[in-house]
């Protein structure tokens, strides 16, 4: 059996996330079906570095699987792209060590969240960035982002677990905003890095920081919630930002 590592990109607008579900399009379902054809009907189980949610995008998601049939990496990449739908692409395929696992071998991830602050609605960012109806105080927003840095208990910043409960203790090494020009105005990109994240964590972090920037929440509530640990509840944090603006940029091993 040969272990494989895939680097995948996808536009999440018409996908119901990564995880296989009955009757809907997901990344895992689409890629496994293509891999099964490519490897002569073998039953392929594709493991991802994480389960991106419905509507979330990826620039560098990692998948791993095992197969018996011997194939060349570049041939796999090219053939896979001929079989995949237009909103999913294989950027790279390579042989991996026998013990490699896309999720359990990962040591860190980089995500990016995009806010579209254009004066007029841009059709190019529909479903690809969070559209702002009102421009926030970006200095206050940045101050909120700074509160997330370090190791904290993010109990109040997680959604309902989709499987086995995970530790809410998480470390954020980078959480900063940069500004870039969009096709019809300004786009604000927040880069978030850490070893791993909880379900909906980044979207809740962004929604809460946005409330601070819009004057709907005091900055002090964020460190207070983080200090409360397991006593912090989801209802006390801000709204969950839409999936449109969230991108899995890369995974480290």
Describe it.
With 253 residues, this protein is α+β, with helices and mostly antiparallel strands. The chain has helices at residues 27-38, 73-83, 138-147, 201-213, 221-228; strands spanning 2-10, 47-48, 57-67, 88-95, 108-116, 130-131, 150-153, 169-172, 174-182, 185-194, 246-252. It has 2 domains: 2-95, 2-Layer Sandwich (Alpha-Beta Plaits), CATH 3.30.70.580; 108-252, Pseudouridine synthase I, catalytic domain, C-terminal subdomain (Alpha-Beta Plaits). The protein is built from 5 helices and 11 strands, in the order βαββαβββαββββααβ. Strands 1, 2, 3, 4, 5, 6, 9, 10 and 11 form a 9-stranded mixed beta sheet that branches. A hairpin with an 8-residue loop joins strand 2 and strand 3.
Keywords for this entry:
253 residues; Alpha-Beta Plaits; 11 strands; alpha+beta; two-stranded antiparallel sheet; 2 domains; 9-stranded mixed sheet
């Amino acid at each position: 059996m040969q272990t494989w590592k895939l680097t995948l990109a996808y536009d999440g607008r018409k996908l119901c996330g990564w995880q296989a579900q009955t009757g809907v399009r997901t990344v895992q379902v689409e890629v496994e079906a293509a891999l099964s054809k490519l490897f002569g009907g073998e039953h392929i189980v594709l493991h991802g570095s994480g389960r991106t949610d419905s509507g979330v995008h990826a620039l560098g998601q990692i998948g791993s699987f095992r197969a018996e049939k011997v194939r060349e990496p570049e041939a796999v990449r090219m053939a896979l792209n001929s079989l995949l739908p237009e909103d999913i692409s294989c950027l790279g395929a390579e042989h991996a060590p026998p013990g490699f696992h896309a999720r359990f071998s990962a040591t860190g991830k980089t995500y990016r969240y995009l806010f579209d602050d254009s004066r007029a609605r841009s059709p190019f960012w529909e479903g690809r960035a969070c559209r702002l109806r009102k421009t926030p105080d970006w200095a206050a927003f940045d101050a909120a982002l700074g509160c997330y840095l370090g190791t904290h208990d993010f109990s109040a910043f997680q959604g309902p677990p989709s499987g086995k409960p995970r530790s809410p203790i998480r470390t954020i090494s980078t959480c900063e905003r940069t500004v870039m020009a969009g096709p019809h105005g300004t786009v604000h990109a927040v880069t978030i890095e850490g070893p791993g994240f909880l379900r909906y964590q980044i979207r809740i972090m962004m929604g809460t920081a946005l409330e601070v920037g819009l004057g709907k929440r005091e900055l002090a509530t964020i460190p207070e919630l983080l200090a409360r640990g397991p006593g912090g509840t989801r209802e006390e944090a801000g709204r969950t930002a839409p999936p449109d603006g969230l991108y899995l940029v890369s995974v480290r091993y």
